[in-house]
């Protein structure tokens, strides 16, 4: 799981680097949104399968957070695909959202299930 979190961090770092660009090319932005979205789906599926297999008691709450993330990514996709989209504004919003997700979800919320899995003997 740590390797997956590290990969997500790398994608977020690429998005943050984009915020320093004067002009954000729409296609580049869509690629990064797609990277974040696809990787999160892969990661969430991995986590949710573990929750089910080990009967994680807070699974419902955790999955709800995943669903909220996916809805937000759908919003970013829709915003980016709008005619005349402000790509700079969108990349800044994505960087803020994804950075916040790293801190609040991965570093706090995920630690609860990691502790649970360790108690079950899963490393």
Q: Can you give the helix content as a percent range?
A: over 70%
Structural class: mainly alpha
Residue stretches low in confidence (pLDDT < 50, at least 5 long) are none
CATH 4th-level superfamily? Hemerythrin-like
The biggest sheet amounts to: none
- Strand content range: under 5%
Number of strands: 0
Tell me what the CATH architecture is. Answer: Up-down Bundle
In the CATH scheme, the class would be: Mainly Alpha
Average pLDDT number: 92
Instruction: Report the principal-axis shape.
Output: elongated
Annotated CATH topology: Four Helix Bundle (Hemerythrin (Met), subunit A)
Instruction: Kindly provide the radius of gyration, computed on alpha-carbon positions and rounded to a whole number of angstroms.
Output: 16 Å
Number of domains: 1
What distance lies between the first and last C-alpha atoms, to the nearest angstrom? 9 Å
Description:
The protein contains four helices and no strands. The chain starts with a helix and ends with a helix. Helix 1 (2-18) runs antiparallel to helix 2 and helix 3 packs antiparallel against helix 4. The longest helix is centred in the last third of the chain and has 33 residues, at 87-119. 82% of the residues lie in helices and 0% in strands. The model has no long low-confidence stretch (mean pLDDT 92). The protein is mainly alpha-helical and 123 residues long. The protein has one domain: Up-down Bundle (Four Helix Bundle (Hemerythrin (Met), subunit A)). The chain has helices at residues 2-18, 26-53, 59-81, 87-119.
């Amino acid at each position: 799981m740590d390797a997956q979190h590290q990969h997500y961090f790398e994608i977020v770092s690429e998005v943050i680097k984009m915020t320093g660009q004067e002009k954000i090319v729409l296609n580049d932005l869509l690629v990064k949104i797609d990277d974040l979205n696809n990787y999160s789906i892969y990661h969430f599926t991995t986590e949710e399968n573990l929750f089910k297999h080990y009967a994680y008691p807070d699974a419902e709450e955790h999955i709800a957070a995943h669903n909220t993330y996916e809805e937000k990514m759908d919003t970013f996709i829709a915003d980016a695909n709008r005619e005349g989209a402000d790509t700079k504004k969108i990349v800044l919003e994505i960087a803020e959202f994804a950075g916040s997700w790293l801190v609040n979800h991965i570093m706090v919320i995920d630690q609860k299930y990691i502790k649970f899995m360790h108690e079950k003997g899963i490393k």
